[in-house]
Amino acid sequence: MRATSWFPALLSAVVFLSPACRQEAGGGDAASAPAEVPPAADHAPPTEPTLPAVKPPALLAELKIDAGDAAPVKLAYVPVEKAEYAVKLRQVSTQHPAGKTISMGMEQSFLLEKALIEGGDRTAWALNLRIRDLAIKPDGKSKDKEMDAAMASLRDAIEKARFRLHTTSTGKVEQFALEGEGAERWAGMKDVLEQLIRDAVIELPDHPVKPGESWQADRETKVDRRKTVNRIRFTIKSTFAGMTRLAGHCERCAVVQTDSRFVIDGDVTAPGMTGKTAGKGQGTGVAVIDLERGIIVKSAMATASGQAFEIRSKGRSQKFDEVMESAYSQELVEPGSKEPPKPQAGQVGK
Questions:
Q1: SS3 sequence, the chain?
Q2: What is d(CA 164, CA 241) in angstroms, rounded to the nearest whole number?
Q3: CA-CA distance, 124 to 177, in Å (whole number)?
Q4: Can you name the residues that pair with 268 across neighbouring β-strands?
């Protein structure tokens, strides 16, 4: 089993898009698109928005980590028949369309179920994942009927969809598929969701490590979102911080800290429009792994990301950007628990 930081990203990918951004990212219809205009090869990438500082999750300060000299430890995930996590997510999105400022806050909580499909030889296996008991709480009553409808549709689609993936003992995602009744409603975002999964996972090294040792994963890919084509360069540095004990979960736990960065540049490819987009993001996280069971028992992450757009249509240029701050945590629901734990996601925004 492995971290599921990509699920919060999955939710925010749809919920936190303004009407203007939603049309650019793949919403709207062809009838509402402006007339064709010649491609503009002289478009320069827009200036990326300034990102707020990202503070380490509170979980890191709560752990008593022993980073003393020790023999190298082999970190590895192990297939588990079934596991359930309680997840909490807080987000604040600040958008700047047409010189305006629009801020939206949201809190999400849900249970994430993982079920083993194929165990293989403990080096690779397949999992089915689904979300249930999803609750979405905006900060204040929304006046955007389109946004409210999108949120209701999102909640329904997520709870009906099933996510299948093939993974390895190091956490590498080898295959991804959408299944279930709600799958067809995600079809247009399959490439985006798969990229979120592959880039957000915490991969482990294939060799033993000592406290203080780090390893790095780099990816570069292109994601076609129908109306934009994004080129993404993603880096995540992970460090084995040491050992700890976590009451109620494990006596011998490994603590892994992560530091992630990504940059985006892309082209607007919608009918009648030309333009560029640029973005960047950063994050810091911590995961606690039960070495005996080979499973993450608790983790938290804080991120900030921003993306700017400059679009030309009918000889006019439009600029807008969005900054997203997120904080999330997840905790394993231990077998026999009378009720799920209530993780705290941390504060985001001002």
A1: CCCCCHHHHHHHHHHCCCHHHHHHHCCCCHHHCCCCCCCCCCCCCCCCCCCCCCCCCHHHHHCCCECCCCCCECCCCCCCCEEEEEEEEEEEEEEEECCCCEEEEEEEEEEEEEEEEECCCCCEEEEEEEEEEEEEEECCCCCCHHHHHHHHHHHHHHHHEEEEEEEECCCCEEEEEEEECCHHHHHHHHHHHHHHHHHHCCCCCCCCECCCCEEEEEEEEEEECCCEEEEEEEEEEEEEEEEEEECCCEEEEEEEEEEEEEEEEEEECCCCCEEEEEEEEEEEEEEEEECCCCEEEEEEEEEEEEEEEEEEECCEEEEEEEEEEEEEEEEECCCCCCCCCCCCCCCCCC
A2: 31
A3: 16
A4: 228, 275
pTM over 0.90: no
Amino acid at 320: F
For residues 324 and 348, the answer to whether their CB atoms sit within 8 Å is no
Q: Which residue in this structure is represented by tokens 């941390």?
A: 346
pLDDT at 205: 94
Q: pLDDT of 142-167, one tens digit each?
A: 566 776 777 777 777 777 778 888 88
pLDDT digits 0-9 by tens, 192-219:
667 666 656 788 999 999 999 999 988 7
Confidence of residue 285 (pLDDT cuts 50, 70, 90): very high
β-strand partners of 267 = 229, 276
End-to-end CA distance of the chain: 34
What's the chain's average pLDDT?
Answer: 78
Burial of 93 (0-12, 13-18, 19+ CB in 10 A): buried
